[in-house]
């Protein structure tokens, strides 16, 4: 089992939902970056549960402590480790969890993978709580990218039957996107009510609901990525599928392409009024041949409805070998996407900074 | 730029469309495997262009030569290198290609990435021709997996507006799937006509058409993959997006999940009649928490319509800085998916064998 | 800059000498290992400074806290993170340290590498204190190897002009080696006095003295390693040179080979009395062609005398650009090798476990 | 088994001594490098056997063919693959080789590692012949480094009892070193006779003799490498131990340090007459804390006498389980170091270019 990622910028993630602490080591950060703690806190707050009835009421504190890698407020270029202590450790009857694995969760595979020796409390190392340190790491990457003129925007594109507008409408980062970025739910105002209604309806029914998240990245240079294997799409997807509940990733027109004719989706080269190369459309989502082409990078992730629902489910008792009625205890998000935007953005930032360092070298900040 | 992939089983891909040769080194193969050359040839034939008017008439010979790694017909455990000489090297006026980059292709990004020093003939290293050695490598991986009881099936799920049936209908590998596997186009017979009509229509119009490919893998053990970063989904997607024209990857219900309620997509655990653990549905496509759960692995790739169309396109002449009419010369596939199934399967086989060796060790075949 | 290592078993090291905490994440541990805390404490005590006048009087507490990866006393297979808080943070006048870099230390290269943004207190991330978490990780690896019948022995082979006996005299792990393993200084009793006299002499003179450490590993299976690049020698050396002050690594007869004839150093194959394959000598130190051959693995590391001496040194003031007299403050080991044996063994254990998992798979403990 | 190496610049090596071809893929080369074929040929000639009675008379042709990665004489940035066909394939009675493994060779471990399925002819993939493509790759790296002002010099430091002068005498690359670089044997003229006499004596006796090779690299920037794990010493040693017969690697004063006092080996910082930072000695061989410090990088490799000697050796017949007299057939180098200098230099060049690209980014040549 491996919980490490990255080539130039390496993340080593650790922790269990109800263990002592969670956190990560970020290895390969450029030196001399004065950390923007406000941005980090903003992103962690956007991910944090318990903000409202739309998210799980579990009161994680998410107070991080930086253990290394910072001196006088700046990165040293050495590994930066953070820990987040697990304050809210509720004692589950976890012996039960080893008999009746929750459908759609990782309990069963975790049990097999660890030959029975896993921590079943709250999903153990498989918990979505592990995304908190990733959001921390992502915020640092986001800051460094921003200082290079690269801006990452994300939002909830759809919840259940409600489908919002696309970031493909925005050729550039503008005020409306800046506003969106400040919202706790990352939903365009005109879509907020309808989307929340979907979540509320699921919540009241003791159910959950799926969603999709869309991200656009502005200001990327031409030339990040490789044609074979380490495509920008492949590296991003590799990271994005590590987000719990993500089951689909698409770039630009994505699966819609499958139903189109080539003549309908041409991204012809043109010059903009400043004489820069552009394409007159962006069906390819900013990537050709696996490599950034200078247009906004655009992708979507599809999230499944969380498998933790309050409704009773009939499933196997692995001990008695008989079917049993399971009512998943605990506090659940009716829609994981309500907190997913900062996570998706964090993953994008981490991967894109890795690619940028590959192109520019470790002296990226020189 | 990197064209290497894999952890235990490493592929190093090389070559340009019109260079001396293409090929790959496959490093980390288990020793003592008697190569199934018939399977290799069958897969390479399924990928090969020029089979009919449905694919590009370019007469690639695809005659591979094994340079190393085999002794007395068996793998030695040392690196296996193959080369495929480029017999059909048509002399393009390639200076032109550096002035008018084809929209939707990698010419422009390839030019920038290489600081102008790339081989523009037929896309150079960015050519889909590079998938031939991948199909070779995939066939070996497929064979090794098959010897472990793991069977990979793939087919064209949709072309343009025609959507065929799903492999999710098949809980086990059966005769119908075996037949499908032998078809050059990997289309179920009842869908063949309608799908070919879509391609033909596009071809006649000088256009191209998108498609999707679906793969199901039977017989995987529980416990391949990791929860964070090296999820089965993430590793597969990483490889799949390297296939030219793939712009979306989804697992199980994929993006459909986004519109569903949790209660609609429960994969409850049950015992089958032999007393083995199963789930009573497979919405998650055989993966929970990034790890195989013993159910069939199911995924889909969305292919864009190839950007090479015969219709005239207006695009930038980078030399004159003026718009020009481009008519892409050469021989094109009206639908890349017609040859994509063996490629998608090859990528899946390579990734899954890598994961299997990680679990079982290099003595996998002992 | 990177502080990560390993393929199957990955170590991500963090911390600075006078920062908040040091520690590491150990990723890829086999599950279900009941940690031998006594062994861990024994090894950390052997590395710990302040044991006597022979080592630095700095009172590091080295109290580690396990943050993750353990449940009910056993490894879960998830990443295990430890932190060691830095209790003894003495406030140096560290502005001075950025003007007069200590000769033979990493201050200057650390300054350049971090573009001035490094933590100069006690060497920052470059401190030998970072070896404490490595010893922790190594003790776990040592335990797992021991459970597979693989036993690692190390000792101080020489200090200054005093050269002790070689582990090549021991064909098997025996009682004498077990005794040696329990000694805080890891010196054979008959050599202890002379070696300590060398250290004492250097200490009294305000000087330091070099040394060498030898390690022998018993019980390794035939077949670990690869011929090209990932040789056992190469992987071990890669890790060993990360130990501060190591400047040479040799296997078996090592540099002595350079002065020998082939006929003098034949390791002929023979059967032992149990009918097992052996070689009748072990000039090659248990490795042929980069791969373990079943004989004891034998290697030596040469340590330079620590650059921290109490004698006055004339060196450059980078601020004034003039030469200045430097008297390195603080508490120094007159001979780093006094604490190096557990570190060298730890590195060996980590690398060998990595190779063993590669051969046996993640289910090594099944 | 793995035969791949490198992070930014990746080498994938393939082939067997008597197979179809040997070669390698070099992945990650900077684009737009006009290959210096003369340098490549010079280096390959220096490695080539059969130059005189001092080396094996085997007539390898070493004619390489570039299969990819070059367009109009320049690197494209895509993978460069070369093959060298095995012209001189002598048919050994290789069934015999599986019964009586040659002492000191990799036959036995190769047999076990491959579960019996290896190519025993001439050592198969374990053959020193595999260093030919490495010298090719190294020559390209050497050229790129030279264009950045980095110059690699190597020579035979000792053979048997004859010990020559050290490159530590040369603070800068000068005419004498340029002359040395052009010699087929890379021995200083005043030492040539005595060294050749050692080889000749061994040859006449049907024996072999050990040697050491020393390398110095001039012009490296300050700041390559990392303190933990990816030290310059560790990365170089990792590669160097892959050279057949290398059993020791040391940097600067190396093992000599072990017998010294700290006050004897101070590298104090000074300014040279141009105002650049230097150290007034170079005991550390250009590296502090794992990172280049701007002084010449200096290291030595110890080579064992080749295990292939013409004298009769008594060893085990694995078939009969009885001891037998073995007389190794074939053509042997009495001293492998006669051809080793270009190989050692190649390894150094490959590793150093990898580190340089890490620092400067893939646009190193921009």
Automatic annotation (TrEMBL), chains A, B, C, D:
CDD domains: Chorismate_synthase. GO terms for molecular function: chorismate synthase activity. Coiled coil: none annotated. NADP(+) binds at residues 47, 53. The keyword Flavoprotein applies. FMN binds at residues 125-127, 289, 304-308, 331. Its cofactor is FMNH2. Pfam families: Chorismate_synt. Keywords: Amino-acid biosynthesis, Aromatic amino acid biosynthesis, FAD, Flavoprotein, FMN, Lyase, NADP. Reduced FMN (FMNH(2)). InterPro entries: Chorismate_synth, Chorismate_synth_AroC_sf, Chorismate_synthase_CS. Pathway: Metabolic intermediate biosynthesis; chorismate biosynthesis; chorismate from D-erythrose 4-phosphate and phosphoenolpyruvate: step 7/7. Homotetramer. This reaction introduces a second double bond into the aromatic ring system. Belongs to the chorismate synthase family. This is Chorismate synthase. The gene is aroC.
